[in-house]
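Inputs:
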Amino acid sequence: MAEQLPNSDPPAQDTADQEQVVDPWSVSGGSDGRIDYNKLLEQFGCSKLTEDLVERVERLTGRPAHPFLKRGIFFAHRDLQEILDCYEKGIPFYLYTGRGPSSEALHLGHLVPFMFTKYLQDAFNVPLVIQLTDDEKSLWRGLDIDEARRLSRENAKDIIACGFDVSKTFIFSDFEYVGGAFYRNIIRIQRCVTMNQVRGIFGFTMEDNIGKIAFPAVQAAPSFPDCFPHMFGQRKDIRCLIPCAIDQDPYFRMTRDVAPRIGHHKPALIESKFFPALQGESGKMSASDTNSAIFVNDTPSQIKDKINKYAFSGGGATVEEHRARGANLAVDVPWKYLNFFLEDDARLATIGEEYGSGRMLTGEIKKELITVLTDMVSRHQRARAQVTDDVVDAFMAVRPMRCL
Amino acid sequence: MPLTKDELIAKLKDAGISFETFEHPPVMTVDAQISALPGNPKTVLKNLFIKDKKHRCYIITALPETKVDLQVVGARLGVGKGGIRMAPEELLTAVLQVPLGSVTPLAIANPEATNVVLLLDAKIRDAAHVPADGGRVYVHPLVNTTSLAMTPGALADAIKALGREPLFVDLEVDPKIDRDNPPDLKTVADAAQPPPQALPEAAAAGAAAAPAAGADGGAAAAAPAAKPAAPAAKESKKDAKKGGGKSADQQRGAKAATTASLTDVAPRVEELLRAACAALLGGSTTPEEATAAGRVDAYCMARLRADLEMQLTGLKNAAYAAGYVAGKGEVVAHAERRFV
């Protein structure tokens, strides 16, 4: 294969050390429970998203970069340079992102890629396709198929509430859309990937059902514009940029390998770090553990409770200790969350100073965070309340979209 | 000066054209005209008043059962499949000098209509459709309270008497058009000038009034022309919604810019914020000035901006969804002939 495959890391000096594992189905940290993103970058073979790239994005789009970009939350990429070169030359690109609708309970971590994608759509004024992999959830989680389809539509409402442009955005569920031009591309991709390759990339075994083994092609296909004739006709010159969390990289390494063999451009990627659980990076966020994350339908008092009681603090054990030594920003969850969601750079820097030096107390930084999160979640809920079934139908309609 | 009905009839008589005159209540459609005439003849001619994207105007006169596909005709005229549409009502009165429901090939008698191209259905001269002995076709003499019955030959003579060489065209043929086969009616179209009243500056005044009216031809063409009329009508209805009553060319270019800019939420958010700041803080305080001066907390301003964006996007989505439902409904209703 042209690109580096994940190799199993040699064990660290201490043989009791745990290796970090990152793949589309599980994420776990190394010995200290934390993810080493530099190691991951190297292991996967992506490029670091440097400051000058961020500056270039600002110059090209004529607006400040999104906080996720400025603060290194979206930290890795493949071929972003090329996308920007194309954009400068007037060669169009579209965005592709997706969600596996496994539950109705979306948390803030789920919203992160969508919030970033909205910024990209607005800044570059480009079309967007959003794939809801209800088939994947039925294959892996044994989810009832009709329930998966229902969850697709429910999740679509939360996605739409993030504020995408309906005239340039196509949301589709695999169960409803696979067929036609989309299916023809799935087959083209499947022809190019062997059982050995998917075993190497995704760890499939002979006991896995054949749907799982064939599925990666379904997630790969939307990288190719001729899957969407209602948006792009038969054009193959249009580029694709995929914002996603870094654990999705294996799918798109495979896709990038296949692309030139089927006469397509390789999709570009822009990848994010993981959103920390309330209990800290060694904790695991799960839809079933309500105290592991802030969910989009949490009430203001639930948000306040969760932050106060469960958000892992890097502050001192006592006020004296805290005033003396300051807070450990590297592990402090409220500080990390503010890095995600407090848009005002100056205010964030001040808080970092004050809290890091111990002048600001844990209670105060948590209060700051609770305000930001409550406003954000409330706005999301109000936006979602306005998303009717007709609005979902409109976003999901296979309608002519003259968007380029 | 536009001709009156009597002046026209006098002119025809002077030229030795033979015809019969029938008076009847006003009729707006071919069907109504058929019912109003003794013997309910089937050879009442239907008339479409058309405008192309280069502002040239045409009257298409045909037998009721002749299928007139505006897309095919547009391609044959060299303006492309979407290049012609039913002319707006105000052009009827301005160019043809006839009221709604009275389009007739004889309207070319009017001086204002010198630039209008007249295309006659070849089937009018076809004995299979209009019997050679005694077969008559019916046309209005500039008003829809009278019909003149004459043989196809007499009609051709009448047109000559009014100063035109009649042009009979097979309206139903759908010829292949490519590099080796140029549009067969293009020379006809290119020889025509746009009537001054049809040009954009003039049309802009007429704005978005009933764009799909397209004269009695539109209504009369109901049955066979329903298919071509529907897409043309749909397009002009869309124009009306977007507040454009302008010429086709301008519409196309302006439409792209206008739709995109009208549905862009961000500038509206800034506009609203500016207006709110001016109203609530007095003078011409901009949002930036307000936060810089500490009159409004920066976080509160950012939150307000985000809330405004959210509300406007919600409205935009709801409106788009409603339009989508309406569009679906229109297609279904058309297929079911529900509103025919």
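The interface with chain B takes residues 122, 160, 163, 165-167, 343-344, 347, 375, 379, 382-383, 386-388, 390-391, 393-395, 397, 399 of chain A (CB under 8 Å). Flag for discussion at group meeting.
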